[in-house]
């Protein structure tokens, strides 16, 4: 619902009444929920159908047309799948409101045509004004008033024009307010990624328009497939070498001829064609200045499809009267019934994809596989789902990030080397970080800083990645650069910048930036670090003033935590020498500030760091301390088993540790069983080894495992099993 929020400029739309309804919905229900919006849209749709049905009935009366004809037109209109987007998309309340108000105004005008009082005129014009400030697509309905006057009221041309004149009052008011409140046009939206017509010139523009017009007609006649998006390059610039362009030209020349031919005789086929053309005109991209920001939109056919429905019903009436004079209604409905059933099925089926953003964007990948926007929006939904899952289950989040990267890449592939939506490089980088590909994430973020240096996010995220890798000087420079971007996150940036200075042992600069961060947000962690730094720099009075009577604050504990944090950061980036050194510094203090109850993984990380640096004895000592604290830690047991097996050749001890690791749900159950199976084999315990190794197959497989099983069954004389694993090895 972000279109409700205020921005720095308003250049695209003026629909205050629609926004008012959303504001009222928010005031009544609080935070937006899809169910409320959908319920309102369904209600509005049925109200609109009621008004449109009465309008069609009124037209039928004027021509003495049987009631079943407007009823058939209404049925076709109501069930047409092209309307799924308008009803299912909460945002399209604007179209529903505009249609309801506009046709209500025209209906009242039509019913009161003989003598309209001032109060009734006031109501008519007020309703039409409400329609315009709901959505501007009501503007072409001025022509509908004139067409009704000519074709149904049988007024002459001047009288028909006079019928329209009162409706110009709310129109002029609307256009005046629009000019007053909207800012000058923002050219940033005028890109071919929104409408390829922005990149078309001369004959190409005309050819592309004709191609689009034909696609609109096709969607009315055969509404499949339907898509929420038809962006570049699902639809591309056309030329007159395309036969469909010539077909479209022929179709519209023919329609124009039929409309012109029947105008003087007031033929209703002419009315239907002119109704379609005029109501569609606002979306027809007739001039460069009137080019809309979309190639095709199913929502744009909401009112024009009424003209289509009228033409089909009128055609069925003419045909049925010609073929079956006795009971034309029955035969006409028998003919149209399969179409209505098909429309109903398609509408229900299409509605399913609007269940949520994920299903909607996923459908776009199928119906518009070459659209940059379809892939980009689906990637966004996958990324957001990943971010949500990441909070509680990183493993569950990873597949969503992986899929999002695929669709981001496809979208950028479609856009080409210089995409005008470089902000999505940042979200691609976020997904790459989600799958642990920080190398590519950095490349993408650097590209983002080149394409859009004003965006804060790329600089900020790059700085975080450099910090995590221990490149504190580079991280500092990037944070400083991010402060020069638009709308930086001041608190987080100054806090992180201060951490860089702290790592670089530039305490004075760290103090200055921590203080700056506190200007934007209070933070107890910063207070403690500042108090420590003040103490280190001899500013004892400032330290005491900061912590006051906080008896929980301890300078030594803060120093301990900072060193422990440095060790953990080094461990995370696999700088095990640095990690071991930092852990060594704080080991003597670990029991002073909470011990292993507060830091249960300290000795596990310490031991791992020492093991990776080649200090096997030191590592074993730390792992044994971790084992004493928690004898059920599978990771500690595994490492003790590895040391006993590979370093000390104590196979009995290794077997014991590996067995205990398996019983304590190891993170990698396959490797745990492989370890135990291997140590059993080296002790010549083949029968035990077979059970363990075959159990490992429940968690994974490898050439080494299959080879071991082949050899052990061979030594045991089990030919059937031996051949089985030999066959698997050869696959």
Distinctive features:
single chain, 731 residues, mainly alpha, Serine Threonine Protein Phosphatase 5, Tetratricopeptide repeat, 36 helices, 0% strand, elongated, disordered N terminus
Describe the structure concisely for a colleague.
Among the domains are: 351 residues, no CATH class; 160 residues, Serine Threonine Protein Phosphatase 5, Tetratricopeptide repeat, CATH 1.25.40.
Could you walk me through the main structural features you see in this protein, from its secondary elements to its overall organization?
The chain is mainly alpha-helical and 731 residues long. Among the domains are: 2-352, no CATH class; 397-556, Tetratricopeptide repeat domain (Serine Threonine Protein Phosphatase 5, Tetratricopeptide repeat, Alpha Horseshoe), CATH 1.25.40.10. The protein has 36 helices and no strands. Helix 3 (68-79) crosses helix 13 (304-323) and helix 16 (372-390) crosses helix 18.
Shape, per Cα inertia axes: elongated
Low-pLDDT segments? 1-5
Give the helix level as a range of percent: 55-70%
Number of helices: 36
- Rg measurement, Å: 36 Å
Biggest pleated sheet: none
First-to-last CA distance: 54 Å
Based on DSSP secondary structure assignment, what is the total number of beta strands? 0
The share of residues in extended strands comes to under 5%
Overall residue-averaged pLDDT value: 93
Which secondary-structure class do the elements indicate? mainly alpha
Oligomeric grouping of the chains: single chain
Blueprint of the fold:
Layout: H1 16-29, H2 34-62, H3 68-79, H4 84-88, H5 93-111, H6 118-132, H7 141-151, H8 157-164, H9 168-181, H10 203-221, H11 243-263, H12 268-280, H13 304-323, H14 328-352, H15 357-367, H16 372-390, H17 394-415, H18 424-434, H19 438-451, H20 456-468, H21 472-482, H22 490-503, H23 507-518, H24 524-536, H25 540-547, H26 555-572, H27 576-587, H28 595-598, H29 602-612, H30 616-629, H31 634-647, H32 651-663, H33 669-682, H34 686-696, H35 703-716, H36 719-730
Helix pairs in contact: 2-3, 2-5, 3-13, 3-14, 5-6, 6-9, 7-8, 7-12, 10-11, 11-12, 12-13, 13-14, 15-16, 16-17, 16-18, 17-18, 18-19, 19-20, 20-21, 21-22, 22-23, 23-24, 24-25, 24-26, 26-27, 27-29, 29-30, 30-31, 31-32, 32-33, 33-34, 34-35, 35-36
């Amino acid at each position: 619902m972000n279109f409700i929020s205020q921005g720095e400029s308003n250049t695209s739309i003026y629909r205050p009444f629609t926004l008012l309804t959303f504001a009222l919905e928010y005031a009544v229900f609080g935070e937006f929920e899809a169910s409320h919006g959908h319920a309102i849209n369904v209600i509005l749709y049925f109200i609109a159908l009621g008004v449109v049905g009465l309008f069609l009935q009124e037209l039928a009366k004027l021509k003495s047309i049987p009631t079943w004809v407007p009823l058939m037109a209404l049925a076709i209109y109501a069930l047409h799948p092209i309307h799924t987007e308008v009803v299912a998309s909460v945002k399209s309340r604007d179209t529903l409101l505009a249609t309801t108000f506009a046709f209500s105004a025209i209906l009242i005008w039509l019913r009161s045509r003989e003598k309209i009082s001032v109060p009734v005129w006031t109501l008519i014009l007020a309703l039409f004004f409400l329609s315009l400030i709901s959505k501007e697509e009501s503007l072409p309905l001025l022509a509908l008033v004139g067409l009704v006057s000519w074709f149904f009221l049988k007024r002459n041309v001047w009288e028909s024009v006079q019928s329209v004149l009162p409706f110009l009052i709310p129109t002029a008011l609307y256009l005046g307010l629009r000019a007053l409140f909207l800012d000058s046009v923002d050219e940033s939206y005028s890109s071919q990624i929104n409408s390829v017509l922005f990149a078309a010139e001369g004959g190409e523009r005309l050819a592309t328009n004709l191609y689009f017009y034909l696609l609109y007609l096709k969607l009315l006649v055969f509404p499949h497939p339907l898509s929420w998006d038809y962006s570049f390059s699902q639809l591309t610039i056309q030329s007159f070498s395309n036969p469909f362009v010539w077909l479209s030209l022929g179709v519209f020349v023919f329609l124009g001829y039929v409309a012109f031919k029947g105008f003087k005789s007031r033929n209703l086929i002419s009315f239907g064609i002119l109704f379609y053309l005029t109501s569609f005109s606002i979306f027809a991209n007739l001039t460069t200045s009137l080019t809309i920001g979309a190639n095709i939109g199913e929502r744009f056919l909401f009112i024009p499809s009424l003209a289509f429905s009228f033409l089909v019903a009128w055609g069925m009436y003419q045909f049925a009267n010609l073929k079956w004079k006795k009971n034309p209604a029955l035969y006409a409905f028998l003919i149209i019934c399969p179409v209505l059933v098909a429309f109903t099925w398609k509408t229900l089926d299409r509605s399913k994809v609007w269940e949520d953003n994920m299903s909607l964007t996923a459908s776009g990948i199928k119906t518009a596989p070459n659209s940059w926007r379809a892939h980009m929006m689906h990637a966004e939904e996958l990324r957001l789902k990943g971010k949500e899952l990441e909070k509680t289950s990183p493993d569950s989040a990873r597949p969503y990030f992986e899929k999002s990267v695929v669709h981001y890449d496809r979208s950028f592939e479609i856009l080409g080397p210089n995409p005008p939506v470089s902000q999505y490089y940042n979200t691609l980088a976020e997904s790459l970080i989600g799958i642990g590909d920080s190398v590519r994430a950095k490349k993408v973020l650097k590209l983002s800083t080149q394409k859009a240096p004003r965006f804060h996010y790329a600089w900020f995220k790059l700085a975080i990645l450099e910090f995590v890798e221990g490149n504190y000087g580079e991280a500092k420079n990037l944070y400083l650069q991010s402060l020069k971007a638009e709308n930086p996150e001041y608190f987080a940036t100054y806090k992180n910048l201060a951490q860089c200075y702290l790592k670089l042992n530039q305490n004075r600069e760290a103090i200055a930036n921590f203080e700056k961060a506190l200007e934007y947000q209070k933070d107890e962690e910063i207070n403690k670090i500042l108090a420590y730094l003040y103490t280190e720099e001899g500013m004892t009075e400032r330290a005491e003033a900061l912590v006051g009577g906080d008896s929980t604050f301890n300078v030594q504990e803060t120093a301990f935590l900072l060193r422990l944090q440095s060790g953990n950061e080094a461990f995370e980036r696999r700088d095990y020498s640095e990690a071991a050194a930092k852990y060594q510094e704080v080991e003597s203090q670990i029991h002073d500030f909470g011990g292993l109850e507060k830091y249960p993984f300290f000795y596990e990380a310490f031991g791992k760091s020492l093991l990776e640096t080649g200090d096997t004895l030191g590592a074993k000592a730390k792992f044994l301390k971790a084992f004493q604290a928690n004898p059920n830690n599978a990771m500690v047991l595994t490492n003790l088993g590895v040391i006993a097996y590979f370093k000390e050749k104590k196979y009995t001890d290794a077997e014991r540790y590996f067995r205990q690791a398996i019983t304590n749900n190891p993170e990698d159950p396959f490797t745990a069983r492989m370890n135990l199976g291997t140590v059993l084999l080296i002790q010549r315990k083949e029968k035990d080894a077979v059970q363990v190794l075959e159990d490992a197959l429940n968690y994974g497989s490898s050439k080494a495992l299959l080879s071991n099983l082949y050899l052990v069954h061979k030594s045991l004389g089990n030919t059937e099993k031996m051949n089985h694993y030999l066959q698997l090895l050869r696959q």
